[in-house]
Every structure is written in structure tokens, then in C-alpha cells.
Amino acid sequence: MIAERTFTIFEILKWATLELEGGPVLSPDVEAERIVGDTVGLSRADLYLNKERILCEAEVKLIEEAVKERLTGRPLQYILGRSQFRYLGLVCQEGVLIPRPETELLVDEALAKLKSLGGPRNVLDLGCGTGAIALSIAYEYPKANVYASDVSSQALELTRENAVLNGLAGKIQIIKSSLFKALGNLVGQLDMIISNPPYIPSNELKNLQREVQFEPALALDGGRDGLKFYRLIASQSPEFLKPGGVLLLEVGVNQAASVANMLKSAGCFNNIDITKDYQGIERIVKARRK
Predict the structure, then answer these.
(1) What is the reported pTM?
(2) CATH number for the 83-289 domain, one of 3.65.10.10, 3.40.50.150, 2.130.10.10, 3.40.50.2300?
């Protein structure tokens, strides 16, 4: 128990970093800063401005427990119970997928298109999870009428909680639906559908890195080849999009061409395009409803 001795903020940062270096952590120093900062209520910059501050025993104990949990592979976002996505702070909890940095690119693409279209627009976040996409659209493009749907009741409750947390409770409509099944009132009404569906092939789930295996299979399992939900979206989304409406999909590694071909084969889309992420991976597939 390290709580039996006195630590300054600087000393506990050094201890936490060294401990995390021995585990499944890509950036031990960054995660140590997040754990300590979250515990003592200081930003990264303020940690170093207050590096000589003595921690109380309770703070040291909380930091030690968080580091030990992280060494098991449990994602930091689940340990801290929160994550940052673009301009929003989001509550995270086990049972709901953690928002990824690459999904911010999906939001960038959506916002660029909304701004080019202009005016009020009806937008659906299909499979909303924490609400990261839907809430970001509502926050950054206030003229949008945003719908957030998911099959998971837990995800919908978390979206609702995050909407309240970010002052967006009246800005989105939350609907429980397995894909489009309960969205009959939106037939022909949508200017945009955005989705980051499950895309990991079923037989690859067991080989995912340890921390990803803490996340819900429901949000990861894309069926035999990882493309199950893209087929369904390609065939069902045209009924819900207005002519000229836009479909934006996040895809897994080496899936973009297959998904683009699905949309082409559906016969209802044109202007099909692929965007690469910050690592040069083809990550976003965009299409326009004819």
C-alpha cells in the first residue's frame, strides 16, 4: 500500500507512470496525468503548476486503485467514468462503447456537409452509444433536428444523461430501435444518416486487445465478415433519406471499398466517396441519395 507514505503530485505522477509502463498501456505518462488530474480535480497544466502539493491519504489510495485497475486492461474511460469527445465531456460506463478519436472525423465530415447544405436539417445518429455523434452535431450545428437511436436501453439512458450533462437535453430526440425498425415516422424525412455500426468480424473478437474486450460485444460484432450491418443500412436507409440526403458511415480497416460497392449496388446512391483518417486508413464512406 503506497498510501502509507506521503506523496507530492509530482512524485505520484512519477510512480503512476512507472507502474503503468509495466502494463497494456500505450501512453503511460498521459494516462498517469489523467488519473491524477481526475482524482485531484486539476487540468494537466495545473498538475505541474501545483507539483509540490502534498496529497492526502484518500487521494493517494484512489490513484493507487485506479492504476491497479488499469493494469488489468480495463479501459481508462470506464475507470474514470468519463471521456472527452470534441467539445463535450461524456459519461462512460461498461456496457456502452467508448467513443474513438477517429469518430471525430466522422463528425467533421457531417458538419462540413450540413454547413454546405445550410438551414434546418433532420439528422439521425443510428446506433448512438454514448450519444457522442448526436450530441456533437446538436452542439456544433444548432439548426439540426437530431435523432439518436440505439437497440441498447443502457446506451439510450447514457445518451440521455450526457445530453443533460452538456445542456443539450432539449436538442435531441432519443428513440429505442434496432436499426430502422422503430423509425417509421422518419421515412422520407432525413437529410442525413450517420452511423458507426459494429464492424469487427465475429471470429476476430477473441483476438482483440485486452482493453477492447471489456467493451460490449453488441457494439463490436459485425457478423461473419464484419459487414452485416452495412448491408442492412445500404438496403434500408434509402427509404428514410430525402432525395439528395447524405449517408455517412465509419468503417473498419480494409472495409471501405466493400461498403462503397454495397452502396453502388443498392442503386439508390451516387457521389460515393471515401475519406482517410489521420493515419491514412480509409475510414469514412459517404454517399448521396439519388
Answers:
(1) 0.93
(2) 3.40.50.150
